C-alpha cells in the first residue's frame, strides 16, 4: 500500500465515522440533538466532498505515473 491509498482510506474512514455519529445522534431527542444532527450532516457532506476530490486526484496521479 502506498501513501495515496492510505490517504484514500483515511478520507473514507472520516466519512464513515461522521455518518455513524449522525446515525447515533438520531436516537437522541431535543433541540440540541437537532442542532447536532444539522452540524453532522454538514460535516458529512464536506467530508464526502473532500473524499471525492482525494479519490479523483489519486486516480489522476496513478494513471499519470502508470501504476
Task: Give your account of this protein's structure.
The protein is mainly alpha-helical. The chain has one domain. It contains 2 helices and no strands. It has helices at residues 3-25, 31-65. The protein is elongated and about 55 Å long. The mean pLDDT is 91.
How is this structure best summarized?
With 67 residues, the protein is mainly α. The chain has helices spanning 3-25, 31-65. The chain contains two helices and no strands.
Descriptive terms for the model:
67 residues; mainly alpha; single chain
Give the fraction of residues assigned to helices.
Answer: over 70%
Shape: elongated
Can you summarize the main beta sheet? none
Gyration radius from CA atoms, angstroms: 16 Å
**Low-confidence segments:** none
Topology of helices and strands:
Layout: H1 3-25, H2 31-65
Helix pairs in contact: 1-2
Amino acid at each position: 500500500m502506498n501513501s495515496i491509498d492510505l490517504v484514500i482510506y483515511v478520507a473514507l474512514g472520516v466519512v464513515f465515522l461522521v455518518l455513524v455519529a449522525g446515525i447515533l445522534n438520531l436516537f437522541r431527542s431535543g433541540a440540541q440533538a437537532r442542532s447536532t444532527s444539522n452540524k453532522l450532516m454538514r460535516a458529512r457532506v464536506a467530508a464526502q466532498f473532500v473524499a471525492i476530490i482525494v479519490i479523483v486526484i489519486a486516480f489522476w496521479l496513478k494513471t499519470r505515473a502508470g501504476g
